[in-house]
Amino acid sequence: ATIVINGCLISPAFCSAFGHKAGETPDELFSVFVSFLAVIVLASLVLICYITATATDGMVVLKERGTNAEPPLTLRRRHSWHVFLSHIWASGQDQVAVLKRQLQLVLPGIEVFLDVDDLHDIGALEQYVSESAVVLIFLSRGYFGSRNCMREVRAMCEMQKPVILLHEADESKGGLPFQQAVDECPSEYRPCLFDGRAPIPWTRIKEFQRFTLLLVAEQILAHSPHYMLTEKAAKREVSRLHGAIASVRVYFPDMEEVKDLVLRRHVTLYASRA
Alpha carbon 196 to chain centroid distance? Predict the structure, then answer.
């Protein structure tokens, strides 16, 4: 401010370069400068807000069908995390980081275990699994060849943890065919991980990825105390999720639900065998 005011007093040309009139008093110049600075600060704040909003990729908080409220996030006393993200660094680290960030956007308050954020002792991997309500396996190339991943698999199977399979199929991004992942899994753990359990595909197309997040969120919520069926009711039902039945349905408020799809005329649909 001092530089601008002094420059205006010395040189009218310098003053006019900043939009001031020659002959203005220092107080008047200072007021103009403060106003100009306020505009710059306001514009900066608007820009920061815009960047922050666009960085969320347009994610909207999930709502519960029936109540249209945010689904309650509850944990048992023995649990510290709603979900443990099991992955191999070489081919899955970047994607599970994205997954964690997006889960926190669509389910505010969710506790997600990710090694780079929460691992303090590599020797306590099994304890971290024990303190998680659900384990999500990010199936990518080399997962079953990792010693630490196999420690987590052994722990989740021995503890009979609910498991979510998230499959990376894009081989250019570190993925592999699902059957190859099954074949690479040691035979003693295949029933625990794959029997009666369909994988959820991981995609990078925005709208498809949102649907993936919705499916993952429903399975996580299904194992929270708020949504778990009573033990007596659970025994009467057959479930692929270790006896827990997903009684929760969530949705994105900005996504229209298609109830009935009717084609106005006959069409022929072709599909490749692959």
Answer: 25
Instruction: Give phi and psi for 200, each to the nearest 5.
Output: -100, 125
Spatial distance between the Cα atoms of 233 and 186, rounded to a whole number of angstroms = 34
**Residue-wise pLDDT tens digits, 246-261:** 467 888 888 766 556 6
Q: How far apart are CA 126 and CA 159, in angstroms?
A: 10
> Roughly how many angstroms between the first and final C-alpha of the chain, as a whole number?
69
Please give the Cα distance from 191 to 102 (Å, whole number): 30
Query: Strand, helix or coil at 246?
Result: coil
Contact 193, 86 (CB under 8 A): no
pTM for the model: 0.69
Alpha-carbon span 102 to 59, nearest angstrom: 7
Of 80, 89, 173, 169, give the one whose Cα is nearest residue 132.
80
Segment 139-152, tens digit of pLDDT:
999 999 999 999 99
Q: Which amino acid is at 161?
A: K
What is the DSSP code (8-state) at residue 21? P
Contacts of 123 (CB under 8 A, 6+ apart): none
